[in-house]
Here is the input.
Amino acid sequence: MPVELNHTIVHSRDRRESAEFFVELLGLTAPVEFGPFLAVQLSNHVTLDFATVPEADITPQHYAFLVSDAEFEAAYALIGERGIEHWADPRKQHPGEINHNDGGRGVYFADPSGHYMELITVPYGGWPQGEPRR
Here is the structure.
């Protein structure tokens, strides 16, 4: 059996606020309560399990999501509508912009708990030869 990521726990100031932020921004199905977690299912069967922890215990992590062009457009529109600060680069040198790395589009922003989020429409290095563009 090949190794696959099944789930990861995302520390949050407020698990509901963070889970709903993702669901709304990325057009995902509602989170499901699972013990102390709110699980958000991604299309590749990985879940992000949001847990409320003391804010002092949150170490910002980086989460990058490969999305379709349509999903990117919808999420980027919400980023604009909500006035979410965003950048074309991880060093925050190009505020209010997107990038066009690898022939796609990408954007960086923070979630409500301060995690570093990235949306990209093309994987780093481009699509593997023979793999269709999504």
Observations:
- The longest strand covers residues 7-12.
